[in-house]
Known about the structure:
The complex is a heterodimer of chains A (202) and B (283). Chain A has helices at 19-22, 28-37, 44-53, 57-70, 73-79, 88-99, 102-113, 118-128, 135-146, 150-163, 169-178, 183-198, and one strand at 3-4. Chain A has 202 residues and is mostly helical. The termini of chain A are far apart. Chain B contains eleven helices and ten strands.
Amino acid sequence: MPLIRKPSGNTPPPAPLSPVADLQSASADARWAAARSLTGEADVPALAAALAVEGDTRVREAILTSLAQIGSVPAAEAVAPHIRSDDASLRTAVLDALHAMPDAVAAGLPGLLGDADADVRLLACELVRAIHGAEPTRLLCDLLDREVEPNVSAAAIEVLAEVGGPDALPALARCADRFADLPFLTFSVRVAAERIGAKPIG
Amino acid sequence: MDEPEPVTEEEFARLSDFLYRRTGMVFTESKRYYVQRRVTDRMAATGATSFASYFARLRSDLNGEIEQFINAFTVNETYFYREDHQLRCLSSDLLAERIRHRRRSEAVRIWSVPCSTGEEPYSIAMWLLESWPQVDAYDIEIIGSDIDTRVLLAAETGIFGKRALMRLSPDLVAKYFVQLDEDRWQILEDLRGSVRFSPVNLVEAAQTRPHGQFDVIFCRNVLIYFDDASRRLAAENLYENLAPGGFICLGHTESMSRISPLFEVRRFAEAIVYQRPMEGARG
């Protein structure tokens, strides 16, 4: 029989001796290994600094995963500013990482939803999906009541349609009134209200 | 012994948190009954009279209770030649690509994780013996790993019931099994001896790394039990366990693209699989 059985696999690579320094190595493999080994709260500043300059998407992913694994508010605060990046792949990676740290993200969400930059507010609506309980409905309804940008409102309505409760219906109605001249928004509100109304309560 | 009191909301939260930290598996409130059943079983098995005393035993890992507890939460039902389109893809496409620039002295390494009671790694072995024309030209190393140590013992023993064999033809059963009695068949000793089994927790790099790098990993229907953070971690561990250019096969409802951008999607006639890019192929 050609199948074989060996006592063990290959020898694993040794753990990096000085991972914080290795985050600046010229070797992407060394930076990857360093990022993967830094998973303590004390490592957040080094990971944050590395995230700001890392150009290799694979290493960047490892940095974001370590920050998500740490999952603290400082870790989320290190990730969140990159939501403003001009690099679409970094924005997506950052959103995915923030989704993976819902407890830490919840603390910073009101700030992101109130950001002066409409793009940030729009992406922050997506992050609301990550948190649980009644908070998503409240946050998105607060946003809807003050939002002036139709695209941001549309993003909030879309998320509300999935995670919102019946207490979102008045804010949705007010939004539809304010944007009565925008058929796509009033249509979105109607669809969201129907979905929320169709959900079983409790 | 009286039926223990149902776990309270706070106790459920502590248990869920404990399980999550140990395994990456997430049990939300909707799984409370499932959790309750298993806690009740473990309390009965250990003679614990209250949740508090059981949880203290669990946290101190008295008599290896953590392992027993984790074992109680794993889902192990599977059967031979499950999702055989991926096996067809393995023999028709994946291995051909993996051996294209390889010396014959280099073994082909395949990892089945989680392997449950062994149906999948033994299926891979049988499939290659039956369907891969190059099977005699290369050494083939198949490893099955699981977090549940009970199933690993069962996998090494290699005894299966009718249900596990339902997709196999009578010829295959006759060729690779010895019938023990009316309802039980045992994998031939040669085949049992050629598959190695090992414990592994996919979210612990210290446990995944010693397994080395593989040409193909079958990792089906386990990532769905993890939350986003654990899934990312498991994906990076699996990435490290793949040789550059190696492939990973997930369950048919799973998508690596939704978990991690580290892998490239490869569409073959029989299956969609994910590939670790060759070194230098990605910036």
